[in-house]
Write a structure and sequence with these properties.
Blueprint: E1 4-7, E2 14-16, E3 18-27, E4 32-46, E5 52-61, E6 73-77, E7 80-86, E8 96-103, E9 110-118, E10 126-135, H1 141-150, E11 155-164, E12 175-185, E13 192-199, E14 204-209, E15 215-221, E16 227-238, E17 250-258, E18 261-273, E19 280-287, E20 292-297, E21 303-309, E22 316-322
Organism: Nocardiopsis sinuspersici
InterPro entries: SBD (IPR040964)
Domain OAA-family lectin sugar binding: 157-234, 251-322
């Protein structure tokens, strides 16, 4: 099968071998909101016989105040039910990947349709993030293609808030904390999942990103040692170099160390700007394919030394030399 998916976390939806149509639904910033009785029709084509397929629906039931909400989800494939009025797990805190086995006899060559419906008696909303279909023999193909397409817009701008930590448990207020601009790209074509950094003045932060990158949550410690919760909401997503006007993007020619020697690797681009003013001196990240790396910069970011680890492999050495800065780097 071709990579088959609908990424509903963006507007318009990002599609692979699919079309979507929905009723009683509207875009909610990083998901599609379905009201009671609302539905999404996800149609796709296949020109081969499929022994079995894996259907993944990433969804969340919005809360009712602080309590779990109620929006029973029904999923049909060409009219056959794979789930009937199921409760999406997770309590409404995080989107959940719900996987279903689809017998090959339910699929046909040509057009097929998946319908995802919220119950007519729903009291809160059903939020849909992604729908994908894979052959059982190529599980994860659609997710990889979706991530690759999403990573084309890898310059991320967030509005942020901080809440100062209270060791005594005293409730503190969330306060605006400016913006965070992020871009980490070494050619793996996978969106960021986790990021931590330390600035030259001692300030540091670590955050984890929601899978659609719409929000992050973590901590921040400023140069004076004050510790705070740290949250952000995505307000802009651009394709490099768009969105980097007026800031420095560090670009490096890199090498990977393995087998007793160093070997040429691809270009690495890095930008983390939280408005603090001090340059970043150390950065660690993990992407949504579970690749990870960590680097520490030389003076003036003329180079770096660190490690890199691809998913399923051991760590290797990683070093880089800054490419000459020109108009493309200081845009």
């Amino acid at each position: 099968m071709e990579p088959t998916y609908a990424d509903l976390s963006v507007e318009p939806a990002r599609l692979g071998n699919a079309t979507v149509r929905y009723e009683s639904g509207r875009f909610g910033g990083d998901h599609l909101k379905l009201d009671a009785g609302g539905s999404v029709e996800f149609a796709f084509e296949t020109d081969e016989d499929v022994v079995e397929a894996v259907l993944r629906v990433t969804a969340l039931v919005s809360k009712s105040g602080r309590s779990p909400g109620y929006a029973p989800m029904t999923v049909l494939v060409n009219g056959e039910p794979v789930a009937s009025r199921m409760t999406v797990p997770g309590g409404g805190d995080l989107p959940q990947d719900c996987d279903f086995a689809v017998p090959g006899r339910w699929l046909r060559r040509g057009r097929n349709q998946v319908t995802v419906r919220s119950g007519a008696d729903a009291r809160t909303m059903l939020w849909l993030y992604r729908v994908s279909v894979d052959s059982v023999h190529e599980r994860g193909r659609a997710a990889r293609a979706m991530a690759s397409a999403a990573d084309e817009r890898s310059v991320l701008r967030y509005t942020t808030r901080r809440r100062v930590h209270s060791p005594t448990g005293e409730e503190r207020r969330w306060e605006p904390a400016g913006r965070l601009l992020v871009h980490v790209d070494r050619g793996e074509r996978a969106p960021i999942a986790q990021l931590s950094w330390r600035a030259a003045d001692g300030a540091e932060a670590a955050v984890g990103f929601q899978s659609a990158l719409g929000d992050f949550h973590g901590y921040h410690r400023d140069a004076d040692g004050r510790l705070a919760e740290y949250r952000g909401h995505l307000v802009e997503r651009r394709t490099y170099p768009e969105g980097t006007e007026g800031v420095t993007v560090h670009r490096f020619r890199t090498e990977e160390g393995w087998g007793g020697g160093w070997h040429a690797s691809g270009e690495l681009r890095m930008l983390v700007d939280d408005g603090g003013g001090a340059p970043v001196e150390r950065l660690t990240w993990r992407d949504q394919r579970e690749n990870s790396g960590s680097v520490v910069f030389e003076a003036e970011a003329d180079g770096f030394l660190g490690y890199y680890q691809r998913v399923g492999e051991g760590p290797i050495g990683y070093r880089g030399t800054a490419l000459a800065k020109g108009p493309a780097d200081l845009v």
